[in-house]
């Protein structure tokens, strides 16, 4: 049994976001996302459902054309097919994302 810690090696990148897979099991993927303050909004329309928890920091998202502000402790469900993007984050914003794929999660 291997024990991990969400805060180990969680320094913010200089720009963009870093995605670290913490668990991949059948159709479930759990990842840690560490954001810098220097991000370029990227549009996502995913084939899987996603639940995100903002563990620390602040963020603003655009979800299906609606602005959503998050602070530490806030969580949000993003159903498959719903367009979303991260517009702004505070430096070192730390997320926990849970992806539920319709079939076994792809390798990679």
Total strands: 8
Distance between the termini: 22 Å
- What is the number of helical segments per DSSP (H or I, 4+ residues)? 0
Element-by-element helix/strand order: EEEEEEEE
Give short descriptive properties of this protein.
single chain, 108 residues, Jelly Rolls, five-stranded antiparallel sheet, globular
General description of the model:
By secondary structure, the chain is mainly beta. It has a single domain, classed as Jelly Rolls. The chain is built from no helices and eight strands. It has strands at 17-25, 28-35, 49-56, 58-63, 66-71, 75-78, 84-89, 93-100. A hairpin with a 2-residue loop joins strand 1 (17-25) and strand 2 (28-35). The relative contact order is 0.31.
Short description:
The protein contains no helices and eight strands. It is mostly beta strands and 108 residues long. It has one domain: Jelly Rolls.
Can you lay out the helices and strands and say which pair or pack?
Layout: E1 17-25, E2 28-35, E3 49-56, E4 58-63, E5 66-71, E6 75-78, E7 84-89, E8 93-100
Antiparallel strand pairs: 1-2, 2-8, 3-6, 3-8, 4-5, 4-7
